[in-house]
Amino acid sequence: MQQTESQRLIFLGALLAVGVLWGVTANNPQAALLLLVAAGALKLFSLGDRYAFVVLTAWVMTPGLRRIVDWQLGYGSISVLSILPLLVLLLPVVLLVGRWRQVPEPLLLLAVVWSGAFVYALGIGLANGQGLAALYTFAQFCLPPAFGLWLTTVWKPDLYPRLAWWLLGLAVLASLYGFYQFVAPPPWDTQWMVNSQMTSIGKPEPFEVRVFSVLNSDGPFADFLVFTLLFNLPRFKLERPWSLGMGLLLLLALSLTLVRSAWLGLLGGIILYLVLSPNRSRMLGAATGLVTLGAVGLLLLPALPGSERSSERLTTRFQTFTNLEQDVSIQERQALILPAFERALGEPTGEGLGVIGTATKLSAEAQTTDFDNGYLGRFVEMGYPGFIAYLGVLAGSFFWVLRGRWQAGSALEAEQWAMVAAMLGALLLLELAVDHHEAFMGIYFWMGLGLVAGFARRGTTDGQ
Q1: Helix, strand, or coil here: 365?
Q2: What is the predicted pLDDT for the residue at 463?
Q3: What is the mean pLDDT of each run of 10 residues along the chain (464 residues)?
Q4: What pLDDT sits at residue 286?
Q5: Residue 209 DSSP label
Q6: Which element (helix H / strand E) includes 350?
Q7: pLDDT the model gives residue 426
Q8: What is the reported pLDDT for 452?
């Protein structure tokens, strides 16, 4: 044990030295910062389950940190800091090596099939010359499962409530920053909006931004808010009015993103949770209170200085639900679906990872291609065999969670199985819009499975 600790300290010192030397001699502060963070992460091995909080914080805060660094040092479409969230997921992979036998067989089987499907698609992508783009996509899909499996091995009765409150706290801070960004966009955000040429997130002007807070764009920020709300459903209670107040902040911030699909995912998840929850009456009261507060907040929105235009945009955005034929974005997506589906049918073995999404910036063409449909994207990349395995894991995980809910031995356990089922149902629904099982949303997916697998491995517990 002492020898292992000594080896870790030697490696830690070596990383620190290399990071400082690189930063000084190569004038590459981003790479140096990355190495310093890696050195700090090694020290965090001793934190046990608390390392999960480091992972979640890194995924939430790194995009905002990157924008500040870009503001000071110059914009780059692919930054060294972009891989920091993936880097922190490598550590659970290392820790899992000696613990994988502790993972319940159903979850382990799901992870093995998932990884096998993406290894297949990775091979196709590398054979087709996708290189770094294929590897980056593979990491986004296959590192989150390791995090979920590792969580199972460090599971404790109080892990879920601690993670729930931590995520809720991060989301509240991000929402507050989002309000500030909406009213007075800071220079690092406006510069990034201009350089990234993402016209879909509004204009870099007060009250014209589609709020993205500390995330990369309005879509990921909306997803973060939605799944933090769903993750906290068992924690929202009328006896905890301050928790409802925090939920209200998240709903108001969500409204400023103007992401319609996020609201559909949230509604679908809440309905599924209410159906499966053993405490429907209590949750219905809390949900009613939260919705009422949210409605009051939205009614008061036009009274805020400078928000008249935003209120009008919000109203117009949601009116399109009743008039989809006139919605330009819906029409553009529909125009992409048929050609993309024919493209997938024409390549039964798949085109391989790295041909769609942000990862294409790493390819020779350096041009982003997206279909705005996660299922279709996976079909194009993974072909018939990989796509069938992909769907099998999604369906298998959902039915495994439903089975766990009905076999739960306590109300506490049943609530958590119901919460995970709600998240998985929302992810399946939102996959129709864009990928929702990779990167940060992949963490929510596998984190939920890992938490309830802790019940399957260690039994039920009392109290929250």
Answers
A1: coil
A2: 40
A3: 46 51 51 60 68 93 90 71 87 86 93 97 92 91 95 92 96 96 94 85 90 93 96 84 87 90 92 87 67 63 56 59 57 65 81 82 61 86 94 97 89 92 96 88 96 75 40
A4: 64
A5: B
A6: none
A7: 96
A8: 93
pLDDT reported for residue 214: 95
Query: Which residue type is seen at 275?
Result: V
Contact 258, 317 (CB under 8 A): yes
3-class DSSP assignment, residue 25: helix
> Sign of the CA dihedral 78, 79, 85, 86?
positive
Q: What secondary structure letter does DSSP report for 199?
A: G
Tell me the DSSP string of 114-183.
Answer: HHHHHHHHHHHHHHTT-THHHHHHHHHHHHHHHHHHHHHHT--TTHHHHHHHHHHHHHHHHHHHHHHHHH
Enumerate the domain spans of the chain: 1-88, 89-458
Residue 227's contacts (CB-CB under 8 Å, 6 or more residues apart) are: 423, 426, 441, 444
Distance in angstroms (rounded) separating the CA atoms of residues 44 and 46: 5
**Short-list 68, 268, 251, CA closest to 172:** 251
CA 47, CA 51: separation in Å to the nearest integer?
Answer: 6
Cα-flanking dihedrals φ and ψ of residue 369, to 5°?
-125, 130
What DSSP string runs through 277-327?
-TTHHHHHHHHHHHHHHHHHHHHHGGGSTT-HHHHHHHHHHHHGGG-GGG-
Measured CA to CA, the distance from residue 453 to residue 89 in angstroms comes to: 19
The backbone region for 350, taken as left when phi is positive above 0, alpha when psi lies in -120 to 50, beta otherwise, is left
Backbone angles phi, psi at 209, to 5 degrees: -85, 135
Instruction: Find how far residue 337's CA is from the centre of its chain.
Output: 24
Residue 424's nearest CA partner among 407, 406, 447 is: 447
> Which amino acid is it at 155?
W
Q: Distance between the two ends of the chain, CA-based, in angstroms?
A: 34
β-bridge mates for residue 202, sequence order = 209
Instruction: Tell me the C-alpha distance between 31 and 303, whole Å.
Output: 46
402 contacts: CB under 8 Å, gap ≥ 6: 276, 421
pLDDT score at 144: 96
Each as own residue / partner, the long-range contacts of residues 69-74 (CB below 8 Å, 24 or more positions apart, any chain) are 69/29, 69/30, 69/33, 70/188, 70/191, 70/192, 70/195, 71/187, 71/188, 71/191, 71/192, 73/29, 73/30
In the numeric block, the tokens 């902040």 are attached to 249
Using alpha carbons, list the distances in angstroms from residue 221 to 58, 59, 198, 201. 14, 11, 15, 11
Bridge partners (DSSP) of residue 357 are 369
